[in-house]
């Protein structure tokens, strides 16, 4: 119809009363065919109305156009109009000097604004008659909404708030700042941490779309939680990795300054004062690579591609072309935060490719148990394998991540590691002072311990059994004591040690000199004998494996109390206190105290006592100070033997992750204030000694190392592995049971003796009573005093033998019963720990079988791993059997003590019965005597009264003359007649009182 009208001469340039032509109306109505027709007929896009607005002013000011932005019709109309327009049309100003961009900003028409800016590059900073740009109008629109009560927390479908939408859709963080402006701290924190119905936070949404500027803005706010997870277990880093935003993944890396700045002062100090152990295994021919010591802070938060002060950051990957085949990194505490950050660093260094495998590894932390108390946290025992969908292939150069994807501007030469090559024909001499490294965590010295061929020692502390600390070198390149420097067999080991897990001394106590290396001639075999060929596992598919298992260790009671005090002090702070650096300098807390302050309320798993591992939600402070080995050593100390410090059993946790074929991460705690040489049961040092020992088998692949470490932790309780200090814990339990058995035997013997004595005493008293009752019987005349027991002859009639108190006293038996019950309870706790290990070991075996499969090329490696696992399983089964055997012995003692208490109770009942009979007889005899005296009294009382009455000087009495005496007959007549009759009646009434009472009761 429009075409027909135009063909018949209709004026398509006519305007309405406001000066708007037909083209404007067609655009408003979204009539694309009419728009095309008018443009083809020559309609002008530069025509303005009375307010000097062209069609672009109208389309930008049309708020409904924004709702049509996602339709093809709206896009087509805008494209047609832009094709006919020039720059002057798009930047034309109306009567208020506003451009179309101003109106798009004022009405929120993002679709038109984006088209104007992206396609035609109009002036974004043009101003109207008030000097306001388009940004001013957009901000004022948001301000108007907020000032009039627009809720920033209003939820749309899916729980999305305006802040969520801004994070997902707005690349400029100024919008976020506008939404948060004027909010108090609590409200601001609520907005930043609010989640959608799917559990995604604002940071999740920004990471999904790769909005780096918004992410940087959010990371700068301490209220944002970077480790939060959605309902599917995805963290913001995983969301970015799933969306393949490598630059965002790099922003969330642990070694980024934004992440480090979010750490508290206590967390930084704890990470700097704890040292991680890093051992590299590979095919080394001549020498060792020695770096400076790496603290946990350096391991977690140093950028592997950066070199600072001549020191390269710690890398978690083994690069192609390097001699290192696989690496072991050990963290000295069970801290979930540290383990997560180390795994995240490895994931980023690999290029953030295998997202599913990394997500599965992260989900391993979901197996932790949480409770009401700090000691309620522990990892549930298990072992699982996770197949890797993307095989790791680290680059051949020094770059440890995909730099093209993450940071293409990084200079490779600056990332080159600077190493000090230590050959096998050197000795260490402490002569030259070392320059300060700038921080307390980096200032260290090389200890004149032992050099292992192929060992990289980050702090210069080289592994050898602690009893040998000298600088002599054996033929295998290992520093040995002087008496073993010659003639020792070459060490067939190839390991690299980068750090020792030990407490760093305070800075003011550190030595000011560091040894330098001098060369000397070395006798013996060539250095090539120290080389060990690593297994080729190229035919084995890569897997990620995680293992959680408990194992038994110990702690000195004084240190345990100190640890508990630190936990209680940190618990009172509710996790809100952040000590300042000044406070650290004044108080100088230990690394353990700093760790507890920083992570106790977060994800730190403290060391648990044996009772805490079983009673997870109660206070066990009393039980902790009354363990079997504590009482045993305390008794030894009283006797002049034993150690000066009393021990208590602890249940520690082994956490292990095998990432691919070249990285093994472990985490198990050290003792409170532990130093490297303080005790032979140092688990970490024992593992290193076993690796370096020349009597065992070589560690040729990462799975053999994992099984070796697990076996060493499980065997920390093994009696055969205990040194000369006497810390044979199972022997302590067995000795305690033996002492209890001996004490029970003594108590039973005392009971038997006391029972015999009391029985003889009661028998003698019974026979004495019988002899008294039958004084003229033949048995009484034959009764000989020799039959009476010694106590019976010595005791007076009112006394009792001392043995009667022995029979009645049960305090010793009750205490012994309580001790035996404690022994059985602790044996049961030990059995539970070993049964959990028994539960894990078959899972480890199944995991190894699944990894190795039936590949004939690695049959020998599989057999070696299985053999180690079988040895560990037999050792654990031996412990379980020993505990069951001891529990049966303790049960027999427990039942014997219970039987003894029962016998005492029965004997007490019998004695009481016999005493009751004895007392009843005595009472009856006394009653008879009392009756006799009563009868006599009754008889003589009236007679005495009458006789006293006649003794009175009464005139009426028949006196004879002046004689005052009465005749006998007169007195007897009344005395016997009245007094005796009254007495007889009273006696009869007393003897018949019960019958008379019953008779009266019956009749009345």
TrEMBL record:
Any Gene Ontology CC annotation: membrane
Protein known as: Uncharacterized protein
ANK repeat placement: 18-50, 96-129, 198-230
Domain of life: Eukaryota
Residue spans of biased composition, Polar residues class: 389-411
Location(s), subcellular: Membrane
Keywords: ANK repeat, Membrane, Repeat, Transmembrane, Transmembrane helix
Biased segments, Basic and acidic residues type: 412-426, 500-516
Membrane topology: Multi-pass membrane protein
Bilayer-crossing regions: 929-952, 972-993
SUPFAM superfamilies: Ankyrin repeat (SSF48403), Magnesium transport protein CorA, transmembrane region (SSF144083)
Main location: membrane
Region (Disordered) location: 389-535, 772-801
GO terms of molecular function: metal ion transmembrane transporter activity
Residue spans of biased composition, Basic residues class: 775-784
Lineage of the species this protein comes from: Eukaryota, Fungi, Dikarya, Ascomycota, Pezizomycotina
Organism: Baudoinia panamericana (strain UAMH 10762)
Gene3D superfamilies found in the cross-reference section: Ankyrin repeat-containing domain, Magnesium transport protein CorA, transmembrane region
InterPro entries registered for this protein in UniProt: Ankyrin_rpt (IPR002110), Ankyrin_rpt-contain_sf (IPR036770), CorA_TM1_TM2 (IPR045863), MgTranspt_CorA/ZnTranspt_ZntB (IPR002523), Multifunctional_ANK_Repeat (IPR051165)
């Amino acid at each position: 119809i429009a075409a027909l009208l135009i063909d018949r001469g209709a004026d398509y340039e006519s305007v309405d009363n406001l000066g708007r032509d037909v083209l404007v109306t067609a655009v408003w109505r979204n009539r694309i065919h009419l728009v095309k027709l008018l443009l083809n007929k020559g309609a002008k896009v530069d025509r303005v109305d009375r307010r000097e607005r062209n069609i672009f002013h109208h389309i930008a000011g049309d708020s409904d156009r924004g709702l049509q932005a996602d339709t093809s019709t709206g896009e087509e109309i805008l494209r047609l109009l832009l094709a006919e327009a020039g720059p002057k049309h798009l930047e034309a100003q109306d009567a208020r000097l506003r451009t179309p961009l101003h109106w798009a900003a004022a009405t929120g028409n993002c679709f038109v604004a984006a088209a104007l800016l992206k396609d035609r590059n109009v002036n974004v900073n043009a101003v109207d008659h008030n000097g306001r740009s388009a940004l001013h109008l957009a901000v004022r629109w948001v301000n108007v909404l907020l000032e009039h009560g627009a809720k920033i927390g209003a939820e749309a479908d899916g729980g999305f708030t305006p802040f969520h939408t801004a994070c997902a859709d707005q690349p400029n963080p100024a919008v976020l700042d506008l939404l948060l402006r004027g909010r108090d701290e609590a409200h601001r924190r609520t907005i930043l941490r609010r989640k959608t119905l799917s559990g995604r936070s604002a940071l999740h949404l920004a990471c999904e779309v790769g909005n780096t500027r918004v992410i940087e803005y959010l990371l700068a706010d301490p209220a944002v939680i970077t480790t939060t997870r959605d309902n599917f277990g995805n963290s913001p880093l995983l969301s970015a990795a799933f969306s393949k935003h490598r630059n965002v993944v790099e922003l969330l890396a642990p070694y980024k300054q934004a992440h480090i700045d979010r750490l508290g002062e206590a967390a930084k100090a704890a990470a700097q004062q704890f040292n991680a152990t890093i051992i590299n295994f590979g095919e080394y021919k001549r020498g060792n690579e020695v770096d400076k010591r790496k603290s946990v802070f350096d391991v977690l938060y140093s950028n592997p591609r950066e070199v600072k002060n001549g020191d390269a950051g710690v890398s978690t990957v083994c690069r192609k072309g390097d001699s290192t085949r696989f690496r072991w990194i050990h963290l000295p505490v069970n801290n979930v935060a540290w383990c997560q950050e180390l795994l995240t660093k490895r994931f980023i260094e690999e290029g953030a490719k295998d997202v599913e495998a990394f997500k599965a590894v992260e989900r391993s932390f979901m197996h932790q148990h949480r409770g009401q108390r700090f000691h309620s946290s522990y990892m549930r025992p298990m072992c699982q394998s996770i197949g890797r969908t993307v095989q790791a292939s680290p680059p051949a150069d020094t770059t440890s991540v995909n730099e093209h994807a993450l940071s293409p501007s990084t200079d490779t030469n600056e990332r080159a590691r600077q190493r000090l090559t230590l050959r096998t024909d050197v000795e260490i001499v402490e002569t030259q002072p070392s320059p300060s490294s700038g921080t307390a965590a980096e200032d260290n010295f090389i200890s004149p311990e032992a050099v292992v061929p192929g060992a990289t020692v980050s702090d210069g502390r080289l592994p050898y059994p602690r009893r040998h600390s000298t600088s002599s070198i054996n033929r295998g390149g290992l520093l040995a004591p002087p008496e073993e420097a010659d003639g020792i067999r070459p060490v067939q080991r190839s390991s690299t040690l980068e750090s020792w897990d030990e407490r760093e001394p305070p800075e003011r106590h550190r030595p000011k000199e560091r040894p330098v290396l001098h060369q000397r001639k070395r006798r013996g075999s060539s250095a090539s004998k120290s080389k060990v060929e690593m297994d080729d596992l190229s035919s084995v598919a890569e897997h990620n494996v995680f293992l959680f298992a408990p194992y038994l260790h110990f702690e000195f009671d004084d240190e345990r109390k100190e640890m508990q005090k630190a936990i209680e002090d940190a618990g009172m702070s509710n996790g809100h206190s952040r000590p300042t650096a000044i406070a650290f300098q004044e108080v100088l807390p230990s690394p353990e105290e700093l760790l507890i302050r920083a992570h106790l309320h977060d994800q730190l798993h403290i060391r648990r006592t044996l009772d805490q591992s079983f009673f997870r939600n109660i206070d066990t402070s009393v039980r902790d100070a009354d363990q079997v080995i504590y009482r045993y050593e305390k008794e030894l100390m009283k006797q002049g033997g034993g150690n000066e410090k009393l021990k208590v059993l602890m249940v520690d946790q082994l956490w292990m992750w095998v990432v691919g074929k070249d990285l093994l991460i472990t985490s198990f705690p050290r003792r409170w204030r532990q130093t490297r040489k303080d005790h032979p049961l140092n688990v970490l040092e024992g593992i290193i000694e076993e690796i370096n020992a020349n009597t065992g088998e070589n560690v040729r692949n990462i799975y053999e190392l994992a099984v070796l470490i697990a076996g060493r932790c499980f065997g920390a309780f093994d009696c055969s592995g205990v040194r000369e200090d006497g810390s044979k814990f199972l022997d302590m339990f067995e000795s305690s049971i033996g002492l209890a058995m001996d004490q029970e035997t003594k108590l039973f013997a005392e009971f038997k003796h006391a029972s015999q004595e009391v029985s003889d005493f009661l028998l003698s008293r019974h026979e004495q009573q019988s002899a008294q009752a039958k004084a003229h019987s033949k048995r009484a005349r034959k009764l000989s005093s020799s039959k009476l027991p010694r106590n019976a002859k010595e005791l007076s009639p009112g006394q009792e033998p001392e043995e009667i108190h022995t029979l009645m006293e049960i305090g010793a038996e009750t205490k012994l019963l309580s001790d035996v019950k404690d022994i059985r309870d602790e044996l049961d706790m030990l059995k539970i720990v070993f049964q959990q290990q028994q539960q894990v070991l078959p899972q480890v075996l199944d995991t190894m079988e699944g990894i190795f499969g039936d590949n004939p090329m690695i049959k020998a490696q599989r057999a070696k791993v299985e053999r180690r696992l079988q040895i560990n399983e037999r050792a654990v089964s031996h412990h379980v059997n020993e505990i069951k055997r001891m529990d049966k012995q303790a049960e027999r003692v427990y039942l014997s003590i219970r039987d003894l208490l029962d016998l005492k109770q029965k004997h007490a009942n019998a004695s009481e019965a016999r005493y009751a009979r004895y007392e009843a007889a005595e009472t009856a005899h006394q009653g008879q005597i009392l009756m006799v005296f009563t009868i006599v009294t009754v008889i003589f009382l009236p007679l005495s009264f009458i006789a006293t009455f006649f003794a009175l000087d009464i005139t009426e009495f028949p006196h004879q003359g002046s004689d005052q005496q009465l005749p006998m007959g007169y007195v007897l007549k009344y005395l016997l007649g009245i007094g005796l009759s009254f007495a007889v009646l009273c006696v009869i009434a007393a003897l018949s009182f019960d019958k008379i009472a019953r008779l009266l009761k019956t009749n009345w």
